[in-house]
Amino acid sequence: MRSQKNYRIVALILVVFFVISFLTNILGALNPSVSSSFKLTETMAGFLPFAFFIAYGIMSIPSGFMLEKFGEKKLMIAAFALALIGALLFAKMPTFGVFLFALFAIGTAMAVLQVVINPLLRVTGGEEHYAFTSVLAQLIFGAASFLSPQVYSWLVSNVGEKANTKGWLVQTLSDIVPSNMTWVSMYWLFAVISLVMIFVIMFTVFPKVALTEAEKVGTKESYFDLFKKKVVILYFFGIFAYVGVEQGISYWMSKYLQIYHGYDYETIGANAVGNFWGLMTIGGIFGLLLLKLMDSKIVLKLFSIMAILSLAMALFGNSGISLYAFVASGFFLSVMYPILMSLALNSVQMHHGSFTGILMTGIMGGAVVQVLIGMISDMVSLRAGMLLIFIALAYILFISFWANPIISNKTIRLGQETD
After folding, report:
1. For the chain, percent helix, then strand, then coil, each to nearest 5?
2. Segments of the chain with pLDDT less than 50
3. For residue 248, which of 127, 203, 222, 389 is within the disulfide window of CB 3.0 to 4.6 Å?
4. What's the pLDDT at 1?
5. Structural domain includes residue 409
6. What letter would DSSP give residue 362?
7. Domain count, the chain
8. Torsion sign across C-alpha atoms 308, 141, 154, 181
9. Which domain holds residue 373?
10. Residue 353 and residue 30: Cα distance in Å, rounded?
11. What is the structure's pLDDT at 4?
């Protein structure tokens, strides 16, 4: 496939990465507020990320077929329109049932956008620059994950009955959101962001994108061929486990810190979630350097062990240790997703586009694991529920031992680059 460099589109894609992260990774900060507002059990609270991430399981593969039929621009506009409908509907009718629908709608939109923008970034930024632009996109993704909980904390601290001296934005939000549910203001913000993105994309000229055979979504037969391979199933559950871990920690940490250590979830808890994502971004940069010095399986092994130790300290340490260990776990999770993806794709010789769709479907681990944690929490305790995360981390550590990719990552040793 030929490069069709278009830096205006690259800039747009980076903005879309920011928006996806901003809308996706707020759930952990919102969890205690939503649970309090709707009087949710832990099982019911677990259905919030379930409603969001199950959309990835449902839509990742169909989105690839829709992309080939309708093209990038139409699909991106449709995705943001769906996010707008979901956010606006809940903002106007803030009930639990509507919230679940809104989360599914927004999750579906984000799943579609993920399928669209990754190959588009490769074409418009140039194949020879794809590694750099991918890292840049992940940094922006991480920055938005850090910023989103900070915005939430600022809004809930300012929106309310005494906001008449806080400025036009805060006063407007104070007039339209329930006084006892100030967190709903985030969904008014999401609606505005989605509307702006629709107009930006409408007036942007998109290049024609020609995918290589390896990048195409593939035929139904290619999926059947892949599902017959044991390695495909094992890596599917690897992504399933990773997203379960990532969301299991980020979604429940604020509530855990509130229940067991008395931290305020609208300030300290929300900041902890933001710092978790911030350290994940920093860890990603550090991980890139390590991957030039060490085999990816060794890096995955080291970070998996450190993540297990960090989570153990978070769940069983005192208040100070727990707070910082939860945040630090983001650093150790940072390299897992890209390493698992690269190990997976480097373990098969063909149908990479179809395999990517299967792996993206594994993101629904963020849905299933949270419901299981919630159910165990209601039966025993939240700490007992979060012990489930250790099983998922153990599986990722297991992958670091048995993985046998056809192609290994290149490393630099004594000034020479080796395979």
Report:
1. 80, 0, 20
2. 1-3, 163, 414-419
3. 389
4. 42
5. no
6. G
7. 1
8. negative
9. 7-206+216-404
10. 35
11. 55
Q: State the Cα–Cα distance between residues 158 and 161, nearest whole angstrom.
A: 9
Contact 143, 18 (CB under 8 A): yes
Q: Write phi, then psi, for 411 (nearest 5 degrees).
A: -125, 160
Let me know: does 33 contact 156? Beta carbons within 8 Å. yes
pLDDT value of residue 166: 64
Amino acid at the residue 253: M
Residue 150 lies in a domain: yes
Report the pLDDT value the prediction gives residue 62, as an integer from 0 to 100: 87
DSSP 267: I
- For residue 410, being part of any structural domain is answered with no
| Pairing of the two strands 416-418 and 411-413 | antiparallel
Using an 8 Å Cβ cutoff, are 238 and 399 in contact? yes
**Residue type for position 308:** I
Q: Which two tokens stand for residue 354?
A: 């179809």
Cβ neighbour number for residue 102 with a 10 Å cutoff = 24
What pLDDT is stored for residue 68 in this prediction?
Answer: 77
Which CATH number is 254's domain given?
1.20.1250.20
Cα(365)–Cα(237) distance, rounded to whole angstroms?
8
The upper half-sphere exposure of residue 152, i.e. CA atoms within 13 Å in the direction of its Cβ, equals 35
In a domain, 411, yes or no: no
- Non-local (6+) Cβ contacts of 165 within 8 A are none
Two tokens at 317? Answer: 């340490």
Among residues 290, 411, 297, which one has the least CA distance to residue 344? 297
pLDDT reported for residue 132: 65
Q: What are phi and psi of 417, to 5 degrees?
A: -90, 125
Query: Of the candidates 391, 300, 295, 363, which has an alpha carbon nearest to the alpha carbon of residue 55?
Result: 363
Query: Which residue's structure tokens are 């025993």?
Result: 380
List of residues 6+ apart from 401 with CB closer than 8 A: 297, 301
